[in-house]
Amino acid sequence: MGADGAIIVDPEVNDSTHELFSREGITVVTVGRVLGVSSEENTYWVDTDQHETTGELLEHLTKKGAKRIAVISAPLGPSYVQDSLEAYTQWCQKIGQEPLLRTLGGVNFEKETREATAALIEQDDPPDAIFCHLQPVGIEVLRLTLEKGLRVPDDMMLATMSDATGVNELEGLPSITGCNLNPDELGVRAVQLLNTVLDGEDPVSPNVLVPTEVIPRQSTNRK
């Protein structure tokens, strides 16, 4: 294949590209873990602790007064989605809330997001906060929430797992609380890990966790 090594970002369950590279003897580092395979098959990875980060977001929303938190999930597959949903399920069990979960299929994000948001808002006992994995999804949730006449954050709070400053400069829209997942650091650490292995050296650890940070903004700034 003309490559000594490869980096795969957000691999899927039993990722076919990871399997192909491994079969060809090409060293692979993944950003996120490959689910559905043994640890021996997914030796080298760089990741963030999405379980812990989700818990921090849920705690932030709770401290701001949220009573019923819903999740609009990214399509299942990548480890970050599974880790986050596991944390949300555990949180729901802890406080005695039935999970309010809508999972997107990924065919038409805008249409699916608006349908999922409408279904949550229009139910008899709607949530007062929505957490999304993907920031573009969060923007559509925000737009539809405002179209429905709800105030953000007074009636509905909103937070996303990913974060990009530019998205929070959209004219006329409240800025969205997100998480700094340190993507640059993830990339640097993945390249460093791959180079270490390709140089024939033993890495300090085959697995690297990069810290994250919740960034509160207007969408959760409930007084």
Structure commentary:
- This protein is of the alpha/beta class and 223 residues long.
- 36% of the residues lie in helices and 18% in strands.
- It has a four-stranded parallel sheet, with helices on both faces. The protein has a four-stranded parallel sheet with strand order 5-4-6-7, sandwiched between helices.
- Helix 2 crosses helix 3 (79-95) and helix 4 crosses helix 5 (135-147).
- The chain is elongated and about 60 Å long.
- The model has no long low-confidence stretch (mean pLDDT 93).
List the helices and strands and how they pair.
Elements: E1 5-9, H1 16-23, E2 27-31, E3 44-47, H2 50-63, E4 69-73, H3 79-95, E5 100-103, H4 109-121, E6 129-132, H5 135-147, E7 157-160, E8 178-180, H6 183-198, E9 207-209, E10 213-215
Parallel strand pairs: 1-2, 2-3, 3-9, 4-5, 4-6, 6-7
Antiparallel strand pairs: 8-10
